[in-house]
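[agent] plan:
  1. take the single chain provided in the ticket
  2. run structure prediction with default settings
  3. attach structure tokens to the ticket
  4. add a short note for the reviewer (M.T.)
[agent] executing step 1
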Amino acid sequence: MLNNTQIREILDTMRDMFPDAECELNHKNPFELVIAVLLSAQCTDVLVNKVTPSLFEKYKTPEDYLAVDLEELQLDIRSIGLYRNKAKNIQKLCAILIDKYNGEVPQTREELVELPGVGRKTANVVLSVAFNIPAIAIDTHLERVSKRLGICRWKDSVLEVENTLMRRIPKEEWSDTHHRMIFFGRYHCKARNPNCPECPLLSLCREGKKRMKKAIS
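[agent] step 2 finished; step 3 output follows
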């Protein structure tokens, strides 16, 4: 496991590599963000961003999503994976927002995770991006990078990864680090072809050093 000095070096390096990292899901308000993140489950941000311009033009409020038949909403998002289930969750979510929150997106994790289709990761993204509340949302990129670098253990669950990162990263850096680690995993430390030879963190990375040693032998 890495010490605090090494983690500080990782955070500073990722800041230098991706100083402008931010949420890549297109949205204009918290409600659109909730819908976009819900759609992004097991789907790429790129694909979601192809669907949401027309979707958000047609549906601007929770009431709009409930004003159409489920089949129509399914057709509007049919290019998204799991679109049938996601359409159902969107309509259920919108009904709850209207009935319980006056059509507004709630601002606590406890309330957000009770919404259909919204898990802890989605809730953390909404808290961080929409409401500027410090949070770290663990997606596949963060989990992979954290374990490869040795910040977390290979056997750690998603919740354990989140708790470890929150404990070892200053709270005021949670949200920025979340985006930078996503960019690092998405564009540099990729799942199948990590760019280990040119990685500025190679000297700290247990997985990278193992891969490089294997490549030489």
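[agent] step 4 note for reviewer: The chain has a mean pLDDT of 95.
[agent] ticket updated
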